[in-house]
Amino acid sequence: MEFGEIFKDALKYPMSNPKSLLIVGVLFLISSLPRVLRQFGVVNKSLNLVWIVVLFIISIILMGYALSVLKKAIGREDGIPGFDWTNNFMDGIKLLVVEFIYMIIPSIICSVIAFITMAPVASRIISYANVAYMATNSTNPNVILSSIPASAWSGLATGMIVTFIIAVILFIIFGLFMVIAQCRLAKYDSLGEAFSFGEVFSDIKEIGFLRLIGFVIVLWLIACVIGLVGSIISAIPIVGWIITLLVIYPFITLYSNRALGLLYSDI
What we know:
It is a single chain. The chain is built from eleven helices and no strands. The protein is an all-alpha fold. Helix 4 crosses helix 5 (about 85-135) and helix 4 packs parallel to helix 11. The mean pLDDT is about 90.
């Protein structure tokens, strides 16, 4: 499908079943109830732990439901899926595992790179600071910092820049892999398929690396515009925030998963 067809369908999709849209909205509303209650001046710190548990459960269910939307879109089925609370929860757990694994890998790599590029320089800076302290017996930060040569700061800055650039590249790559892994999880209902890196890479090649990046950018920009509308509406005291939770957030959830599923349906 062409981008125009995908996004036209995806933007119409959430309103094809207002009842399901509102059910998703109610879940968003419940998960944000403490914030809504604060709008009315109701604060109960003793319930915070309870709401954390409730928020976690609802978030997992919403993730699983989003996966069912994705699955229907991949099959090019019309209609918004109904809720199957048990399956939605289990699917949400699976999706959480997929997202965690795909994001923890670049996080670990970046941590190692940061240590390699910055730890030696940081050690030098600490040594200079200790020498300055013993020589001057001063705890004045300006005195200690001025004793550290510019080359040390330059080395630290270089390490930070290198780490940042590599991090951006890695998170983009693994982010794209994660998006397709989610599609494979929805299509095959298998964690093994989601972690089949060779097949994920093959799917990306079939879609087209640049086409996938372009799709994600357009998807994100449209979601930002919808989110901006939600931000404007939420500026209305109490009512605006409730409308945003009931309509805007679920709209973005349904729209984005529908669009992604339609893109993947060509494979």
